[in-house]
Specification:
The chain is mainly α. Helix content is about 60%, strand content about 5%. The chain is built from 21 helices and four strands. It has a four-stranded mixed β-sheet with strand order 2-1-3-4, with helices on both faces. α6 (about 85-105) packs antiparallel against α7. The longest helix has about 45 residues, at about 340-385. The protein is globular, with a radius of gyration of 24 Å. The N and C termini lie far apart (about 75 Å).
């Protein structure tokens, strides 16, 4: 019996390591508190009795019904469930996604070393941390998971293949819109690895296009006006900048905070993190580059571009690297499968694991600290306000403090423009919060105070909070 367990672990050692790391990862991210988009999305506590009508079918420019259900669930007991429930859902989803990737690599025919190294790479790479450590990212995680499962059924089933495939594509899309890309990815990737013929590829690409058309029609028929956020409008410079960010976050392992966040910048440590990770990246992406000129990798790269295309054309942040990482693990697995220097790759991978885990710890720690900034600001505002008030106006003096994704957040965004205070009072007060941002100048505080007094004199609100970086000033009637 012991020998069979040892053989099982030896065969699937990455799965064993991932199962051990998952509770540790969950324990590490649980202290992360809401910041920035967490206060604005539909996964925050929702107390709207008409949430199905107003949020479930469409919200702003999104159709993500599972997000609204999470918001409704955590709204039943915010102090207990939010954001703990969100973190649990995200980490479990990341585990399922990793297991799905291992199965994907098995179906594509990679050897034991290639499957295990690539799967563990996916689970711990710093490129996933902006997603795994976030509170509202379950849509990204489960969209990819459902997309991979859709591919597995697409390759395995003969009967009812199209019913299951199309159903899973729509399920992925209802988590997040980029799940729709698997309508094209599945046939292209299957063709690249000789799992279908060219005739089937052509037919199924038409089916995939029909799936996309059906989704577009459903969006148009939904009972809500579609409003497009300015950030989601494609522009040439924006797309070029997004491509650079995509390549950097997806293919290069480095401590992003030490490199990119000006207040935390430490170029020596950033360079050291890159140099320690570089041998593995060299063996995988540089030394094997001649092997990449074949149908399998060309189709994989096409699928990679399709997977991240919705983000490259609109908004790309570190969180969105997650959408393309399944394809990157395939490239890594292919490289390992064809290497003649497996011992060198293994040694380099062990070194990469060490530095990747250290970077992960640093990124998670920074996220925890950003959340605590918002919490402390909220407590400060509540303490200075004294007694509960129903309505608050928040005046934010524009902050030029540098930010980095969800790891290092601007204080007023961690404060949630005042919404963090609602959370601290378990949504008892204030019931209404409005905000505005004024330009940072030498007279900014005086202007903010005059504006606050004017608002109080008009009796529009009971209290004014002036936010100046992490400092809160309170004006009451």
């Amino acid at each position: 019996m012991q020998d069979s367990y040892r053989q099982l672990i030896k065969q699937h050692w990455s799965i064993f390591i991932i199962l051990v790391l998952t509770p540790i990862l969950l324990y590490a991210v649980l202290p992360i508190l809401p910041t920035h988009d967490d206060w604005a999305g539909t996964t925050k506590p929702d107390f709207n009795p008409f949430f199905i009508k107003e949020h479930f079918f469409f919200y702003g420019y999104h159709w993500r019904p599972f997000d609204t259900w999470i918001g409704y669930i955590v709204g039943r007991n915010p102090q207990v469930l939010w954001p703990t429930f969100n973190h649990v859902i995200v980490v479990i989803g990341h585990l399922f996604c990793s297991l799905s990737i291992y199965r994907l690599l098995t179906v594509l025919g990679f050897n034991k070393a290639a499957k295990n190294i690539s799967t563990l790479f996916f689970f711990i790479t710093p490129a996933t941390m902006a997603t795994v450590s976030a509170i509202d990212s379950q849509n990204q995680v489960y969209a990819l998971t459902c997309g991979i499962i859709a591919f597995l059924f697409y390759c395995k089933l003969k009967k009812r293949k199209y019913i299951v495939w199309i159903s899973l594509i729509f399920l992925a899309t209802l988590f997040k819109e980029n799940g729709l890309m698997w309508a094209w990815i599945c046939p292209i990737l299957a063709y690249g690895f000789d799992l279908i013929e060219i005739k089937t590829l052509k037919k199924d690409l038409l089916v995939g296009t029909a799936i996309m058309g059906a989704y577009a029609l459903a969006i148009l028929l939904l009972p809500k006006d579609i409003t497009i956020h300015p950030e989601y409008v494609p522009e040439d410079f924006k797309v070029a900048n997004n491509v650079i960010k995509f390549f950097f976050t997806s293919f290069i392992t480095v401590d992003y905070i030490y490199l990119l966040h000006q207040p935390s910048r430490h170029l020596f440590l950033a360079a050291l993190s890159f140099l320690l990770a570089a041998p593995f990246l060299y063996f995988i992406f540089i030394r094997q580059i001649r092997q990449f000129a074949n149908k399998k990798i060309i189709c994989t790269i096409i699928c990679l571009l399709i997977a991240v295309a919705p983000h490259l054309g609109t908004v790309f942040s570190m969180m969105h690297a997650y959408a393309g990482l399944a394809m990157i693990t395939i490239i890594i697995a292919f490289s390992i499968n064809h290497t003649n220097h497996i011992k060198h790759v293994v040694y380099a991978f062990i070194l990469w694991i060490i530095i990747a885990l250290l970077i992960d710890i640093h990124l998670i720690d920074a996220s925890v600290k950003s959340g605590l900034v918002g919490k402390n600001m909220a407590k400060n505002a509540i303490q200075k306000t004294g007694s509960p008030v129903d309505s608050v106006y928040v005046i934010i003096i524009e902050d030029d403090y540098p930010k980095l994704s969800s790891f290092c957040v601007i204080p007023n965004e961690a404060f949630g423009w005042g919404l963090a205070a609602q959370y601290e009072t378990n949504y008892q007060w204030p019931k209404v919060i409005e905000d505005t941002t004024i330009e940072r100048t030498a007279d900014a505080f005086r202007i903010a105070k005059e504006l606050g007094l004017e608002i109080l004199n008009k009796q529009q609100h009971h209290c004014v909070w002036i936010v100046n970086h992490e400092h809160i000033d309170v004006i009451k009637k």
